[in-house]
Every structure is written in C-alpha cells, then in structure tokens.
Design goal:
Strand content: 15-25%
Shape: globular
Largest sheet: 7 strands, parallel
Helix content: 40-55%
Structural class: alpha/beta
CATH topology: Alpha/beta knot
CATH superfamily: SPOUT methyltransferase, trefoil knot domain
Order of helices and strands: HHEHEHHEHEEHEHEH
Distance between the termini: 31 Å
Number of helices: 9
Number of strands: 7
Radius of gyration: 16 Å
C-alpha cells in the first residue's frame, strides 16, 4: 500500500499565535523536581500536541529558555503556557484553590488505574496531574495534598517507566477522555 507522508500544509499545523488563541483542554501538568531537561522538553512537546492549558515547573526543574529543553520540545515551550514555582506543594495548593482536582501519577496505596481516572473526567473538569523526580517519584508531601493517585498498570519486571513516557501516556488518555 502506498502511504506517502503528509506535508506540513496537509497536517494543518497551527502557528504559535493560533495556538495561544485556541481553546485548551483544562488539563495542567505539574513537574515535581524533574531533573532531566529532555524529559521537561518532551512534556512540553506532548502538552502542545494534546493542546493542554499549561505546564508548571517546580523545584529543580530547569526552565525555558534552555537549549536542551528546546531541542526536545521543538519550540513547544513557546506555545504552551508555563510558569515556575519553587515549591511543588505551593503549586498544588494554588491549583486546588483554583478548583482543580489534582492527581499524583504514582504507585501508591489506594491509587486508581489510569482507565478508572479517565472514566471520571469530563471536558469541563479542571484537572492537574503531578509527575515526579526520575528516581524518587512524586514527593510524599505532594501526594498527601493531592486528591488521589493515578497508576498505569504495568506487567513486566521493572514497574517503572521514564517520566516523559508516563507523562505522554497519561496526557493522551486523559485528553481523549476530556474530548469524548
């Protein structure tokens, strides 16, 4: 079968200006001390692809402008709204004060599966997800502030995935639920 790639024009890509003006899904991604610039860039790129409202960078996360973030994000750090918070707990408290339901993406007692969480979310439900440090995950003090934990079922020996892979899976599934 002949399947030529789409051209940029055929894809209908938005300009950065059009992206800023477009409606976004009410889904915010919070990065709790994510140290890898490549992971931060990948989150920006996926947030742009899903047309999410913003990314919150907390703690030791590096921030744009940054060459390594830009290399992975391919400019998505310019389209997706973002801000920096020195303290993740303060960022979560602020989101909750704004009416967000906040979930840590973490393996924890009483966590719900990603599918269960997706079944509870609608397109008007303001939601935030917190993803954590590559080694230590989401800090316990942040988990304690969250409304719950979302877990991706895993069936291998590692029970651990790269934070940008996890972010992509969760952002995609929740954005699909919000669009339904």
């Amino acid at each position: 079968m002949n399947n030529p790639k789409l051209t940029t024009q055929e894809m209908g890509r938005m300009s950065v200006e059009a992206f800023h003006a477009a409606d976004k899904l009410p889904l915010t991604v919070v990065l709790d001390n994510v140290r890898s610039q490549h992971n931060v860039g990948a989150v920006f790129r996926t947030a742009d692809a899903m047309r999410l409202e913003r990314v919150v960078l907390c703690g030791i996360c590096c921030c744009p402008p940054n060459r390594e973030i830009h290399k992975t994000a391919l400019g998505a750090e310019e389209s997706v709204d973002w801000y920096y918070s020195k303290n993740t707990t303060e960022a979560v408290k602020q989101l909750k004060a704004e009416g967000y339901t906040v979930y840590a993406v973490e393996q924890a007692h009483n966590s719900v599966t990603l599918e269960q969480a997706a079944n509870q979310i609608t397109n008007c439900h303001k939601t935030a997800i917190v993803l954590g440090h590559e080694v230590f995950g989401v800090s316990q003090d942040v988990i304690d502030l969250c409304d719950g934990c979302i877990e991706i079922p895993q069936y291998g020996t590692k029970h651990s995935m790269n934070v940008s892979v996890t972010a992509g899976i969760v952002m995609y599934r929740l954005s699909e639920a919000m669009r339904a």
